[in-house]
Amino acid sequence: MAIVSLREVLQDAMVKRYAVGSFNAADHSMAEAILEVSEERNVPVILSVAEVHFRYLNLERFIPYLRQRIETMATPVVLHLDHGLSLDTIVQGLDLGFSSVMIDASSLPYEENVALTSKVVELARGFGASVEAELGHVGGGEGNLTDGTEADPSMFTDPKQAAAFVRATGVDALAVAIGTVHGPYKGEPQLDLDLLKEICSLVDVPLVLHGGSGLSRGHFQSAIANGITKINYFTEGSLAAVEEVRRVLATGTPIGYPDLIGVAKRRVKEIISEQIEIFGTGKP
Ligand code: 13P
Predict the structure, then answer these.
(1) What is the pTM of this model?
(2) Which residue's CA is the nearest one to ligand 1's atom 5?
(3) CATH code for the domain defined by 6-279
């Protein structure tokens, strides 16, 4: 199966009401964990590399390697640039071979978000890549592991503006702010499902939920039932891997570095696999 874009995997998800997981990789073992689960469960997956993680990677070698690896696979995989913050990053990502890009101009005023996103759509078309954008703003940060964040309703997505945004830009998928945050939550997450329903009734492209970590099975199921087809998920898998490494080290059993990486990777795989089951990915 060739590497695919969001258009190919999210169409089926929209029709059959499930979500495809978008999991972040910041190194080789995380990427392998994501791809191996896709192969073992025989489901599509979105392997995301976020701009904030570029500093951990040699991108010029890593992305071509991933493309080659994915081309040997039987399952559809989207190689997605997550939270690209500038046109330069998007151009770099498209040149390197991402099959999908997210331009995150959600901190800019509406008109500037429209202008930058439209430019990215025009560029990406030349590469056959899909484009995700964000309207409203999902707060928090994946690097912030100490303080949780509370969602700010004043940043939630406006449904009519979302419909106008999609028409004006031609994006393939839209990330919405409906109560989630990146990284840990302060208090109980509350999703505004009425808002999500209204956005879904006015917007005809797939909707994306960022900040999946910390949400319950029930949150995911109601988000999917009301129109979410792509779910971004990272922090919980990363923290669970660290916890597992701590647990193994605390036993005092001698262990070398390669096996320790294996311990972390196995835990990441378990977490990803559980999420894929909850998202109902690839259901017939
Ligand atoms: P979490 O790290 O909170 O799961 O969010 C991931 C995300 O939205 C990546 O774009």
Answers:
(1) 0.97
(2) 211
(3) 3.20.20.70
